[in-house]
Amino acid sequence: MLQLTQKERLLLEDQKVHEESCVQKYTEYVQQAQCPQLKELFSQYASQEQQHLNSINQILSGQVPNVGQEGQQNKAQGSTNPSMQGNTYNQNDEKLCKDVLMTEKYVSSVYNTTIFECTDTNVRKVLNHIQKEEQEHGEGIFNYMRSRGMYNPQ
Ligand SMILES: [Fe+2]
Ligand SMILES: [Fe+2]
């Protein structure tokens, strides 16, 4: 049974709220997205966010969840071939992408803060694993946006 410090508990309660909001966002955006590839991406991320939420709930209840064995489903997706698709993307799809990219960036940075307060090594490992997946979500969205000409960093 884990003994969480007051500080850990407060930070984890925040992460719980963030994960709930990520689940809700991706679930709604699967419906709103026009592009089938983007729908696919959002739907995959919605289920990973649900796993994150389950892990945070387990830690809050004093258990260390078992993660890491799901492995191969975590490949960052989205085409990496920017020039192929032209610039004929849906404006609302672009809005959804920008929104989730900003969200992932924020959530990932808050995991960093939380991890530094953890007393238990295995809890740190679980949170590291989740943070890595948030970064992969960001990469998937980033690659998708580049492939559609929505984002052209020089
Ligand atoms: Fe998450
Ligand atoms: Fe995420």
Description:
The chain has 154 residues and is mostly helical. The termini are far apart. It has helices spanning 6-32, 36-60, 91-115, 121-147. It is 68% helix and 0% strand. The chain is elongated and about 55 Å long. Residues 22, 45, 49, 104, 107, 134, 137 line the site of one fe (ii) ion.
Features:
154 residues, mainly alpha, elongated, binds fe (ii) ion
Task: Summarize the SSE layout with pairings.
Elements: H1 6-32, H2 36-60, H3 91-115, H4 121-147
The site of one fe (ii) ion (FE2) has 7 residues, from helix 2, helix 3 and helix 4.
Describe this structure in a few short sentences.
The chain has helices at 6-32, 36-60, 91-115, 121-147. With 154 residues, the chain is an all-alpha fold. The model has no long low-confidence stretch (mean pLDDT 91).
- What is the terminal separation in angstroms? 50 Å
Mean pLDDT: 91
Number of helices: 4
Counting copies of identical and different chains, the oligomeric state is single chain
Percent strand equals: under 5%
The radius of gyration computed from the alpha-carbon positions, rounded to a whole number of angstroms, is 17 Å
- Unreliable stretches (pLDDT < 50, length at least 5) are none
Helix content: 55-70%
Largest sheet: none
